Amino acid sequence: MSLLETHNLTKSFGRMIAVDYVDLTIADGQLTAVIGPNGAGKTTLFDVITGKLRPTTGRITFRGQDITGLPSHAIVSRGMARSFQVTNVFPELTVTDNFRVAVLSTRRSAGRHGVRGSAAGAPAEVARLLREMGLQSYAELPCAALSHADQRLVEIGLALAGRPHLLLLDEPTAGMGPVETVAMTHLIHNLAHHERLTVVLTEHDMQVVFALAERVVVMHQGRIIADGAPAVVRDDPLVRTAYLGQ
Amino acid sequence: MSEPVYRYLGARGALRRAMVGGVLAAAVLALVPAVVSPFQLLFAAEMLIQCLFALAFNLLFGITGLLSFGQAAYFGVGGYLAALALVHGWTGILGVLLLSTVGAALAGLVLGYCCVRLNEIYFAMLTLAFGQMHYAGARQWADVTGGSDGILRVPRPPLRLLGLTLPLDTGLAFYVLVATVVLLTTLFLWGVATSPFGLMLRAIREKPERAEFVGIPVHHYRLAAFVLSAACAGLAGALVVLLGHTATPEMLFWTKSAEPVIMSLLGGAKVFLGPALGVLVYAWLKEWLSSRLVDYWMLVMGLIVIGCGLFFRGGICGALAVWWSARLAQRMSYVSTRDPQPDQIVRPDDSR
Q: CA A172, CA A155: separation in Å to the nearest integer?
């Protein structure tokens, strides 16, 4: 069953068309990588799907509901979470408070949607996030004092706080060293295979892409030019010319 | 389940601290009449009202991250509502305070709705514009507001509470009323700042976009903070009118809006009571400087504020906090530089 569907999704800034009639269907449980050269429209696609930008044309369906034009917080509270290309955490709040914000806000919106929503159980949920991200020893430090890689972990923890159905990761390993990249790859693999989370990620590191992805979508100049299993996409001649420049 | 998490999430600790702080503050406020003259007591009441105004402003500035340059509008709305009600024969003083609070909250709801969509400088400019509109309104609508003279000879009726009638015409009685109202409102604001709602506001201050993407409806939360801040400013305005028996357009002038900004910057906007400390320091500096420099004291005050902006971003409280945490770090080698270990990160897998 498809979790997310876009129909004729377009986003243009004046004459510049960043996302050009994209029809994308994400199946439940699938780990998809969206790749493409800089400026291919990957981040804009994420921004349009998560409500940060309004699409110029087209529709977005998430879990069977039309979410086109909804504000981001409403989309997030329906079970879609994302991380950002440039690390985006609450720098002056402690790691614990970062997670508390995310946990409490999901509970608040869950309450509005008729699900049991209270602050009860929030401490356990915060402790779970600290444990799963391996950040217990930094719990009371302000995020700004953490290393870049640890801040990325906090950001993923923020996204996981609402126990989302779909996780969008925008270049999760950007700016990381080789050891940290391996660790992040492991983490994403665990989320997808043990937590049964549907993950869509953009990534420049092809080793990460081919280690993780079950499906690779290639974007070029706002369009999807290839879509399929990693091995097939890698050998696609169109992809090689457009993306690998060969 | 690690112990520190529970400690940090415990609401009970916050409540205990509020009670201890409240009792301590009440004791200090109760001692003031014993050590100062009746004239100084009215000055103390004025300072307390200014504290309330500054703390209300800082709910927006220090906690939510919105620099409002028009809080005098709500201060003035509260003040004028109180003056009008009292001049037209209202005698219930608590009713008057409630009217001013609710009236200012409603003004904050309408104008805040327009402002909270904007960020940073645009927000500051729009609040300034609304503030000056209120000032112009107070001056021009002479039939109701008394124009540039304002409303004079506002009576101060006795306080009727639980069947008792307490006259407020002595400085001491009025001081007790002001101290009680300011203390209770400050405790309320502290409760707001330390609640989950206050935590959301701080998250919005840090990164509005990220806050939206953890599911917080940022505009609604900002508007709620705006309304609360306006309500408390209106209450402060009503108390000032009761204190001075007049409501004047100067209550709404932009320089009145600048006062809490300067006080918060001096005292420290990131610490809850920082603006209250700022009120004291500002009053002391003003007294000290104007007795020596007469006409030039504003110039020196300006230089001090510039110095704060350049070198002491966190104000006095911020500088103290930096000094304290540096000491703490020295003692405990606080900041760990350890790199994350891969095996630590893949822990969910290990536990299966």
A: 10
B344 with A109: Cβ contact below 8 A = no
**Alpha-carbon distance A87 to nearest alpha carbon in chain B (angstroms):** 10
Q: What are the per-10-residue average pLDDT scores of chain B (352 residues)? A: 41 74 89 86 93 95 92 94 92 92 96 90 91 89 84 87 82 91 94 90 93 92 96 96 91 88 89 91 87 82 84 83 79 50 45 39
Nearest to A211 by CA among A196, A220, A201, A219: A201
Dihedral angle computed from the Cα positions of residues B265, B266, B271 and B272, in that order, rounded to the nearest 10 degrees: -90
Domains of chain B, by residue range, sit at 13-254
Q: How many residue pairs from chains A and B have C-beta atoms closer than 8 A? A: 147
Q: Six-digit token pair at A59?
A: 């529709």
User: Which two structure tokens, joined as six digits, stand for A162?
Assistant: 């609402």
Check residue B352 and give its pLDDT. 37
| Alpha-carbon gap, residue A138 to A244, rounded angstroms | 41
Instruction: Pick the closest to residue B236 from B71, B32, B3, B27 (CA basis).
Output: B71
Tokens of residue A177, six digits: 């060293």
Place of tokens 């790691």: A95
A186 contact residues in B (CB cutoff 8 A): 342, 345-346, 349
Q: Which amino acid is at B49?
A: I
Is the separation of the CB atoms in B270 and B62 below 8 Å?
yes
Band (pLDDT 50/70/90 cuts) for residue A110 is: low
pTM of the model: 0.86
Q: Which two structure tokens, joined as six digits, stand for B228?
A: 């609360």
Q: Is the Cβ–Cβ distance between B347 and A137 less than 8 Å?
A: no
**Distance, CA of B82 to CA of B11 (rounded, Å):** 36
Residues 6+ apart with CB under 8 A from A51: A67, A69, A70, A71, A72, A74, A75
Q: What are the tens digits of pLDDT across the range A125-163? A: 899 999 989 898 998 999 999 999 999 999 999 999 988
Identify the CA nearest to A26 among candidates A46, A50, A9, A3: A3
Reported residue count of chain B is 352
B189-239 pLDDT, tens digit per residue, is 998 998 889 999 999 999 999 999 999 999 999 999 999 999 999 999 999
- Residue entry with tokens 């304002």: B150
Contacts A161 to B, Cβ<8 Å: 214
- Predicted pLDDT of residue B205: 94
The three-class DSSP label of residue A61 is strand
Domains of chain A: 1-79+166-246 (3.40.50.300), 81-163 (3.40.50.300)
- Judge: B215–A77 Cβ closer than 8 Å, yes or no: yes
pLDDT at B334: 43
Cβ-based contacts of A108 with chain B (< 8 Å): 215
Strand partners, A202: A34, A170
Query: Nearest CB to A82: which of B1, B213, B344?
Result: B213
